[in-house]
Design a protein that fits this description.
Blueprint (H helix, E strand, L loop, with lengths): L8 E10 L10 E2 L6 H11 L5 E10 L5 E9 L5 H10 L8 H4 E22 L9 H14 L16 E4 L12 E11 L6 E9 L3 E3 L8 E2 L1
Parallel strand pairs: 2-5
Antiparallel strand pairs: 1-5, 1-6, 3-5, 3-9, 4-5, 7-8, 8-10
Length: about 220
């Protein structure tokens, strides 16, 4: 009988800085204390994404102490409007440029520094799987890509400017830092089951450096 769900697969990721933005902070960039499940899924999918599979994050181990750094960054506060873009496409002329000096905004950010995690995840086969697709095929593909350092795009830690390195988890993985911490309500992921995206949250905590992630359809997850 063919399996529909994979075994638990693990990936070690680390980086110099990270920002897993709290959605309640409208302007300033303030990170959660720990990587969110949606950010972990993004890292995994950067290594292997296929329409035939859907990833689920099960656990995140925190390998380094939680450290913070406060920075100020220049950001562009506008985008080219759709109307201007459509006009330029139709008439072959138009003003599509943005002048940074006119649109620059300075914002504060509270970021994490020197982060390292082990992501534990599994995937399930979707209705888009072909006749030649199976769980063993994608498990082997994921392991090969991790061992070779291959990815579809460079994984990042919350924001694209904070790129992440990754490697396989060895037979003797590093132990998480023994941190016990109530993280409060944390973004789990976006739920597209009803068509429109809905933010779903869960009550997160660190137990000896490990954050257990419930299934998005469990009663622990609310939105």
């Amino acid at each position: 009988m063919n399996r529909k769900r994979s075994r638990t697969l693990s990936l070690r990721v680390w980086g110099e800085n990270a920002c897993f933005t709290r959605p309640e902070m409208k302007v300033e960039r303030v990170s959660y204390d720990v990587m969110t499940p949606s950010a972990a899924r993004g890292v995994i999918e950067a290594v292997l994404w296929k329409p035939a599979i859907r990833w689920h994050i099960k656990r995140i181990d925190v390998l380094n102490p939680i450290r913070w750094v406060s920075v100020r960054r220049n950001e562009v506060g506008a985008v080219v409007s759709t109307g201007l873009a459509m006009t330029a496409m139709k008439s072959n002329r138009g003003r599509l440029g943005l002048y940074i000096e006119d649109e620059r905004q300075q914002r504060a950010g509270l970021l994490l520094r020197d982060v390292a995690y082990i992501i534990h995840a599994s995937f399930e086969m979707t209705e888009r799987a072909g006749t030649g697709d199976n769980v063993n095929k994608f498990e082997d593909m994921f392991r090969r890509r991790v061992e070779k350092g291959q990815c579809f795009h460079r994984p990042y830690l919350g924001c694209r400017e904070f790129s992440a390195d990754f490697e396989p988890v060895t037979d003797e993985p590093p132990l998480p830092k023994p941190i016990d911490l109530d993280l409060g309500w944390m973004l789990h992921d976006m739920d597209y089951s009803d068509g429109a995206p809905t933010a779903r949250f869960f009550r997160a905590s660190l137990d000896k450096g490990t954050m257990t992630v419930p299934s998005i359809d469990s009663k622990e997850v609310m939105g």
